[in-house]
Amino acid sequence: MKFNSISGNKFTFSKASNTANQKQIKETLQLLVMAGLAYKVQHSSASGLPLGAGVRPNKFKVILFDHGIFQRILGLNLSNHLLANDFSTINKGNLAEQFVGMEFIKYFSPHARPQLYYWHREKRGSNAEVDYLLQINTNIIPVEVKSGTQGKMQSLFLFLKEKNIPLGVRISLENFSQYDKIHVYPLYGVENLLRFYA
User: Fold this and answer.
1) pLDDT tens across 69-123, in order?
2) Using CA atoms, how far apart are residues 160 and 166, in angstroms rounded to an integer?
């Protein structure tokens, strides 16, 4: 299965393999999920709690359980970039999203299978996506992941307005800060986010 073309994006069976049919891909993915080597990030309408009640089963993203393996699949040798002043790669956004997903999974109970969600509105001329939705106590926390210090948050603001949610979260290379209704956490501070809302 070609995770380099699907991680961070909506899973499409036709992009997962050039040689296997849909049934084979579905069975392979199910085995990887059952083994805990891959996780489905389910789409949720986020119209209320629990988030799982608004799931569309055939609409999901997939992340690998191991960030290092994902980097190798992408063909990245990060030792070449550790001391570089400018690390620029086409997959940087997927790497950041993968990392944050793994951080979220780490904080789930070891006795329950993690449930990750995202929101995507497919509307002509107005596509919007929020990378992760967290359900913490009675709160829905939308989370947008950015791989740098820039980037618009149109989808996040749209989600907050459409779902009447007071606060959202941006995880990026920026330091801890706040923009209007958006709390900003650095990539290294995901744990702080989970503790704050717990």
Assistant:
1) 766 666 666 655 544 555 555 456 778 888 899 889 888 777 777 789 999 987 7
2) 7
Locate 176 and state its tokens.
């801890």
pTM of the model: 0.83
Cα–Cα distance measured from residue 24 to residue 164, given in angstroms and rounded to the nearest whole number: 41
- Phi, psi (5° rounding) for residue 118? -145, 170
The stretches of the chain forming alpha helices (DSSP H) are 13-16, 22-34, 67-73, 92-106, 154-163, 190-197
Structure-token pair, residue 191: 């744990």
For residues 133 and 155, what is the distance between their CA atoms, to the nearest angstrom? 13
What angle separates helix 190-197 from helix 92-106, to the nearest 10 degrees?
A: 40
